[in-house]
Design brief:
373 residues, N Utilization Substance Protein A, Chain:P, domain 4, OB fold (Dihydrolipoamide Acetyltransferase, E2P), GMP Synthetase, Chain A, domain 3, 5-stranded mixed barrel, 4-stranded mixed beta sheet, 13 helices, 41% helix
Length: 373
């Protein structure tokens, strides 16, 4: 190695941000292993690279002994004094050696290590960049579809993976298609960052609303909760501290343009936008939209809402295969029990004396359970 090699390390430090001194130290360490492997030696070796000239020097570290026939890892006191006049017995002395062809071997190994470090550095830079984008929205171009149906997305500096579990059911993906995806996870691997993308995560819907609705991005309108069955339907509740701001209207936009852009991005997924309310009765009634609710009775202890709707609103409140009430329950965090008006009116009245006895029995059972604990 020579000065040109050191100058190359200087350039690498400037362009790649890899510390020159750390790189030289790594090369020195690697060369010790290379030396022992190449020469089949078990000697205690030290290898240094001159920081000015680039010269590589190999030293055998030997113990000074009072012997005329020292072992391989020893040196006689007489020979040692020729190297270091004030040397003492049992001291460890660095004895320079000149193994044949080691300069060429060192140069080859140093080059390989530098290339390896550059690749590692580039992988780390990419990992750090995308780690910062975790939980964010990202745009990429579909590169290919693998045999296991995972989609590989070109993100510019690296690729992301949209696996089957994170795809929207029924959504069609094709090569060259530009898509927006949610960065669900970024993992560091020996081959570089492994970026897991998602199209069905609720975070995707949140970021799309932040992108389309300036009031949400600025924090004037707050997203309180999201419930989503990707590819089919979603409900989102929003709130504004300022009473002069309509949070639902802000999200819908003029002529429904804002929410329509999001629906288009999600290939027709229906989105219900609901105004959040601290009163669970009002909130649950809104969450069951588009159905009209007549009455909501709250069971605070069990977190159950008993909802009554008009006879002709029952199927709308429940939704196809129970989707509407299921999403409303996820959105509000309440278990929702729905019945129509006829069922509610025809429900048998509870005898006050029977109810009193039932309450007494329940209280007794609670006391027994408390004693048992």
């Amino acid at each position: 190695m020579n000065k040109e090699f050191l100058q190359a390390l200087e350039e690498i430090q400037k362009e790649k941000g890899i510390n020159k001194e750390e790189l030289i130290e790594a090369i020195e360490t690697a060369l010790i292993s290379t030396y022992k492997k190449h020469y089949g030696s078990e000697e205690n070796i030290k290898i240094t690279i001159d920081r000015d000239t680039g010269d590589v020097k190999v030293y055998s570290i030997r113990q000074v002994v009072d012997e005329t026939h020292p072992l391989e890892d020893e040196i006689s006191i007489l020979q040692a004094k020729k190297i270091k006049p004030d040397v003492e017995l049992d001291e460890f002395l660095e004895v320079e050696i000149n193994p044949k062809d080691f300069g060429r071997i060192a140069a080859q190994n140093a080059k390989q290590l530098v290339i390896q470090r550059i690749k590692e550095s580039e992988r780390n830079i990419i990992y750090d960049e995308f780690y910062q984008k975790q939980d964010e929205l990202i745009t990429g171009i579909i590169q290919r579809k693998e045999s296991n149906n995972n989609i590989i997305v070109d993100l510019g500096k690296t690729d992301g993976v949209l696996n089957v579990a994170n795809q929207i059911k029924g959504e069609h993906y094709y090569q060259g298609m530009r898509i927006k995806a949610y960065v669900a996870e970024v993992r560091k691997t020996t081959k570089g960052p492994h970026i897991i993308l998602s199209r069905n995560h609720i975070g995707l819907l949140r970021r799309l609303f932040e992108l389309e609705v300036p009031e949400i991005y600025s924090g004037v309108v707050e997203i309180k909760a999201i419930a989503r069955e990707a590819g089919s339907r979603a409900k989102i509740s929003v709130y504004a501290e300022d009473e002069n701001i309509d949070p639902v209207g802000s999200c819908v936009g003029a002529r429904g343009l804002r929410v329509q852009n999001i629906v288009n991005e999600l290939n027709g997924e229906k989105i219900d936008i609901i105004k959040w309310d601290k009163d669970p009765v009002v909130y649950i009634s809104s969450a069951l939209s588009p159905a009209e609710v007549l009455k909501v009775d709250i069971d605070e202890e069990n977190k159950v809402a008993h909802v009554v709707v008009a006879d002709d609103q029952l199927s709308l409140a429940i939704g196809k295969e129970g989707q509407n009430v299921r999403l409303a329950a996820k959105l509000t965090g309440w278990k929702i029990d729905i019945k129509n008006k006829s069922e509610d009116e025809n429900a048998p009245a509870v005898d006050p004396d029977i109810q009193k006895e039932k309450d007494l029995l329940d209280s007794l059972v609670d006391e027994i359970n408390n004693l048992a604990q």
